[in-house]
Amino acid sequence: MSTLNNIVTKPDVEGRKLSIVEALREALQEEMRRDERVILIGEDIGIKGGFGGAFTVTLGLSDEFGSERVIDTPISEAGFTGIAVGAALGGLRPVADVQYADFLFLAMDQLANHAAKMRYMSGGKLKVPMVMRAPVGATTRGSQHAQSLESYFVHVPGLKIACPSNPYDAKGLLKSAIRMDDPVLFFEHKLLYGSKGSRKESGGLEVFGIVPEGEYLLPFGEAKVVRPGRDITIVANLLMVHKAMLAAKILSEQGIESEIIDVRTLVPFDWQTVFDSVARTGRLVIVHEDTLTGGWGAEVAARVADSCIGYLQGPIRRVTAPDTPVPFAPVMENFYVPSVERIVAAVKEVCQ
Amino acid sequence: MTLPVLTNDQKLGMYRKMLLCRHFEDRVNSLFLQGRMPGTIHQAQGQEGCAVGVCEALQQGDMLTSTHRPHEHAVARGIPVKFLMAELFAKSTGCCRGKGGSMHMGDADRGMLPAIAIVGGGIPLATGYALSFKYLKRPNIAACFFGDGAVNEGIFHETVNMAAIWDLPVLFVCENNKYGASTLIDSVMKVKTVGARASAYGIPGQTVDGNDVFAVYQATYEAGERARSGQGPTLLELETYRFAGHSRSDPGHYRSKEEVAEWKAKDPIARFETRYLAEGLLTSDLIASYRSSVEQELNEAVEFAESSPSPMPEECLADVYAE
Fold first, then answer.
1. Which among A322, A323, A319 is positioned nearest to A347, based on CA atoms?
2. What value, to the nearest 5°, has the Cα angle with vertex A245 and ends A241 and A251?
3. Using CA atoms, how far apart are residues B126 and B172, in angstroms rounded to an integer?
4. Which class is A17-210 in CATH?
5. Which residues belong to CATH 3.40.50.920 in chain A?
């Protein structure tokens, strides 16, 4: 990526702490100050006296940049997504925003048929530099405000996909996404915003993280080993990185050292980091909140089986949501979302 | 608003463009029947008044979007026919380097995005383009062609509404050729005209004789001037008819012979010729020489296309991402 000349891959050891919401907002603000072509478009994102998008990420940005650059739309997801595609073709860098990723289905044609294909159909003459931000994750809101949709879009060539697990990555990846000449789906987990939800591991989730002052960018296609370990590789994204970390602590007390890889971007995917890790540990567990069948974990399992079969000392196991809609009742939701206990159990099985 | 007076050269230029559109479609049809081209085609013979009338009112820097039936739009927009023909022949010299084909022909550098073959799909793209023009303070407009079938798509409603509330410089141009594939528009729309729908969005709407190239030009020019001066979008309905079936495989049994004959009597090219033969701008010799020059241009285009190299199979892997 030629425009990224200021890549930082390690956060400061010490520094100010921001929430992921603040980090995302700062990324938007910095990019809008840097480049006038960056605009925001979506529902309830800039209304005076409003709430700055469903999760306050854009709060205050319309005060600084005005309604010409923070464009509030009618409730028309397909329409404003298509308009973002057209605006990107026309030379702007729109950052669109759906309130819940579930609503991306309304805009599926615009994303899968237009954003993803205009460059290809033009024989490489066009580019579509847009970002679509979308909150995922089950948070006691029932079936239609809860899905983790990453895998649908992993299957659409032409789209890039980011799924940061922490404020540092969120800021660096969003800034890179905005500068990219390709359409990017940017998934954010609602519990990482600080929503309470029904999670059982209360107090175990650190939603604030160190974000250094000033500019930095993170590359796509570079996973991060967030915990080194010799016995097993755990690949996860978004909230599941945090659950895997909690599981690793428990497993460590039992003598199993887990190496945890935060994928950070699903497209492009950093296969090498996963392969290298599996070559060392010989074991693999994949954790995602997306449902099991056809989830991105299946692709990871297939690729590792293809490239690392000689290194594997046990079966590849996936810890995912079951193949059901997301339930409402907190007891059911806690059963549905992969838990620390399920990760621990899966790792112990694979390590037997 | 005063309409610029068309010079005789401009009128004849529009006539030649209509001829080039018609002959292009006829030639393509014949090449398909001979099995010399892959794919499928949706042809637009009979709709030349729409393509040429609209494109004549567009300026350099304006952007056009089209549909699954884009050949005449591309010809009228001025993309050299050899690049269009090469695209249909799936050659690497095609306007989309062989990655678009019939339903995606276009060239943004020449003012037309690759055509969008999802019904209604070009409507938000043109509107987004218009948003960029307004934001970047460019004097340009975007125009999108779509068929009568597209006005029952949800995306039409969402997008026209947003273009209206934001006064975007975009023209919504509905080529109402009466049929969405085989479905008669009257059977799927309660209001009498597509143009009438404009009132639901608070924008001007107009129903125009699409087979009168000058009426189309005038309506487009006026709507374009409104858009350029910040007065927002217009919905233009161009009443027209496709002489061919919906696609290559459609014999059109859902239309009566009488209906087809009635519309063939309103052929936009024949109407032009009748009028200007009477007025003296055209002579039969001049018509013959235009037809011959158009045929010559198409001969050269076919030769260019057939002698061009095919893309390497592996090029299928390129152009998915910019970086």
1. A319
2. 135
3. 9
4. alpha beta
5. 224-351
Question: Nearest CB to A86: which of B127, B161, B323?
Answer: B127
pLDDT tens digits, B244-302: 988 878 888 999 999 999 999 999 999 999 999 999 999 999 999 999 999 999 999 99
This prediction has a pTM of 0.95
Q: What is the mean pLDDT of residues A128-154?
A: 96
Q: Is the pLDDT reported for residue B120 higher than 50?
A: yes
Which candidate, A193, A205, A164, A163, places its Cα nearest to that of A22? A193
Given the residues A114, A145, A189, A242, select the one marked as catalytic: A145
| ipTM computed for the complex | 0.95
Instruction: Say how many CB pairs under 8 Å bridge A and B.
Output: 155
Q: What interhelical angle do B284-307 and B268-279 show, nearest 10?
A: 140
Pairing of strands B142-147, B170-176: parallel
Highest CATH level, class, for B40-243+253-305 = alpha beta
* Contacts A88 to B, Cβ<8 Å: 128
Fold of A224-351: Rossmann fold (3.40.50)
**DSSP state at residue A124:** S
Say if A87 is an interface residue toward chain B (CB within 8 Å). Answer: yes
- Quote the tokens at residue B158: 């969402």
For A316-347, write each residue's pLDDT tens digit. 999 999 999 999 999 999 999 999 999 999 99
Among A7, A120, A161, A266, the strongest candidate for a mutation testing the B interface, having the largest count of B CBs within 10 A, is: A120
Report yes or no: A5 at the B interface, CB cutoff 8 Å. Answer: no
- Considering chain A, tell me which residue range(s) the CATH 3.40.50.970 domain(s) occupy: 17-210
Q: What is the pLDDT of residues B302-320, one digit of tens each?
A: 999 999 999 999 999 999 9
Mutation target vs A (from B63, B158, B160; most A CBs, 10 A cutoff):
B158
Nearest-Cα distance to chain A for B122, in Å, is 9
The answer to whether B113 contacts A110, with C-beta atoms less than 8 Å apart, is: no
